[in-house]
Amino acid sequence: MTVQEPAYAATCRPGQCNDQDPMVTKCADDARNLESFRYQGSSPWLQNTLLELRYSPTCDTAWVRTTGGDCFDVWRPCVAVLQVSGGPELQGGPTGGQKWTNMWSFRYTLRGCFRSGNDSHLDGCTRWR
Questions:
Q1: CA angle 110, 66, 69 (to 5 degrees)
Q2: ω into residue 94 within 30 of 0, thus cis?
Q3: Helix, strand, or coil here: 126?
Q4: pTM (global) more than 0.70
């Protein structure tokens, strides 16, 4: 009996996907949401922006995906981040449409957050997972 490979094949292996794009590596192909919420904080440019903490079982990685938002670095300071306990903070979107951060190994404790305002304060997060 042969084992059939999935229709997609990720281009990185668990533990070797850190700081890579989940779409390019095809890790997004089997992704699911671990947690999500719509922004209700202080930034008028983020109102109702959807933040999803995504997970790929094949790559054993997580990342943040946002849908919506209207942020521009200088004029409207806000960003979505993937926080890694004991590691880096990866930034991405939201600038309209759907955007995502690079991914990090799920062997670390992770969470997705918004940062907003001139001081880039945390402005809404998922739970640590």
A1: 130
A2: yes
A3: coil
A4: yes
Q: Is the pLDDT of residue 48 over 80?
A: yes
Note the Cα 121 to chain centre separation in Å. 18
What is the rounded CA–CA span in Å between residue 76 and residue 20? 26
Which pair of structure tokens corresponds to residue 2?
Answer: 């042969």
| SS3 at position 28 | helix
Sequence letter at residue 36: S
- Do the Cβ atoms of 94 and 66 come closer than 8 Å? yes
Which tokens in the block code for residue 22? 């989940």
Nearest Cα to Cα of residue 26 among 9, 4, 13, 7 = 9
Coil, helix or strand for 36? strand
